[in-house]
Amino acid sequence: MSDTPDDHPRPKSHGRLSIQASARPRDLMAGMPQVRGAYQARVITLFPEAFPGTLGLSLTGKALDMGLWRLDAIALRPFGEGRHRNVDDTPAGGGAGMVLRADVVDRALDAAMEGAPDDRARWPVVYLSPRGQPFDQAMARRFAACEGITLLCGRFEGVDQRVLDARAIEEVSLGDFVLTGGEIAAQALLDAIVRLIPGVLGNAASTEEESFSDGLLEHPQFTRPQLWEGREIPSVLTGGNHAEVTKWRRAEAEKLTEARRADLWAAHQARMAAKPPGRGR
Ligand code: SAH
After folding, report:
1. Is 154 touching ligand 1 by the criterion CB < 6 Å?
2. Which of 31, 86, 90, 258 gets the most CB atoms within 10 Å of its CB?
3. In angstroms, what CA-CA distances link 234 with 211, 228, 250?
4. Is the CB–ligand 1 distance for residue 177 below 6 Å?
5. How far apart, in whole angstroms, are the C-alpha atoms of residue 169 and residue 113?
6. How far is CA 14 from the centre of its chain?
7. Where are the domains of the chain?
8. Which CATH superfamily is domain 210-274 in?
9. CB 23: neighbour CB atoms within 10 A?
C-alpha cells in the first residue's frame, strides 16, 4: 500500500479492511497448494461474492484448486468514503446515474497492487469498459504471458476518468454491447486467459487448433451417433485418413471464416500472401 498523502485521511483500519474484503477468496484457497510463480488475478469489485463464479467450475476451477492460478476478489466498498463507505457520486456536468470516485478506486487499487510489480508490461491493470480496446485471443495470450493481472469492474455509469489516466489503466471491452457491471466481463476475460496457462487444459494441443489460433474460425465438430435424424457425420471424418481429415478441416475453417467474418478472412488472406508457400497448416 502506498503512503502518498491524499485529500481525505484514510481510515485507520484501511489495511485490515482490505484483508477482510478478500476474506472469501482467501478462505476459498486456504489449504490449497500454491504453485510458486502461479498466475495471479486480482479483481476489484463492488460484488466480490460474484467470484470465483463460473471460474470455480470445471477446468478453470480445478486449476484454481491445484494452485495453477490464484484469484483474489477485492471488495471496493471498504475503501469508500465516510461512515457509509460511499464509493460513487453524481456525474460532473449532470446526467443520469452515478460514477465511481477516483479516490476510492485508487485506494482499492493500491491495496490490490500490494506485492505486484509496477511494470504494466509484467502486470497489466485493466478496467473493463465498453469504450475499451476490443478483447481478442491475441490479447488473452499477451495477458496470459504476464505474472498476473488486476481487473477493475465498473458499475453504474463507470469510473472517474482521472484515476484511469493517472494509474495507466488499460480499458478493455468484451464487445459492442453494454453490461450493467464489469464482473461478467472480468470472468470471461479471466476464463480466456487461464485456459492458456500451461497445465490448465488437459490437452494443450486444443489451444493450438481452436478458433482464432491461426486467424480462422474452427471447423465444425461432430461426435456419435454416426447417424442422427437422417444426418450423417461427413464420411471423411470417419474414414481414418488423417491427411484427408486435416485437409477437410482446413477447407471448412476457411469456408466458414469467409462466410461469417469478412474482417478475419481479409487478414488471413493478407497473411497467407505474405508467407512463403508451403508454410501453412
Ligand atoms: N456508461 C458507460 C457504461 C457503463 S456500464 C458507457 O456508456 O460506456 C457499467 C459497467 O459495466 C462499466 O463500467 C464496465 O465495467 C462494465 N461493462 C459494460 N459493458 C461492458 C463491455 N462491453 N465490456 C466490458 N465491460 C463492460
Report:
1. yes
2. 258
3. 20, 12, 14
4. yes
5. 12
6. 28
7. 39-194, 210-274
8. tRNA(m1g37)methyltransferase, domain 2 (1.10.1270.20)
9. 12
Do 122 and 168 touch, CB atoms closer than 8 A?
no
- Say if 39-194 and 210-274 have the same CATH topology: no
The residue type of 265 is W
Nearest CA to ligand 1 atom 10: 181
Q: Which tens digits make up the pLDDT trace of 31-75?
A: 556 678 999 999 999 999 999 999 999 999 999 999 999 999 999
Ligand 1 atom 22 nearest Cα: 130
In the chain, the amino acid numbered 124 is: P
Reference 65, options 199, 221, 236; nearest CA is: 199
State the Cα angle at 104 between 28 and 130, rounded to 5°: 80
Q: Which three cell numbers stand for residue 166?
A: 493517472
CATH of 39-194, one of 3.40.1280.10, 3.30.1490.270, 3.40.50.1370, 3.50.50.60: 3.40.1280.10
Site of grid cell 478472412: 265
The grid coordinates listed for 94 are 449532470
Measure the CA–CA gap between 41 and 150, rounded to whole angstroms: 6
| 186 within ligand 1 shell (Cβ under 6 A) | no
Give the tens place of pLDDT for each residue, 118-142.
999 999 999 999 999 999 999 999 9
Which of 128, 131, 133, when mutated, tests ligand 1's pocket best, judged by the most ligand atoms within 8 Å of its CB? 128
- Spatial separation of the C-alpha atoms in residues 10 and 17, rounded to whole Å: 11
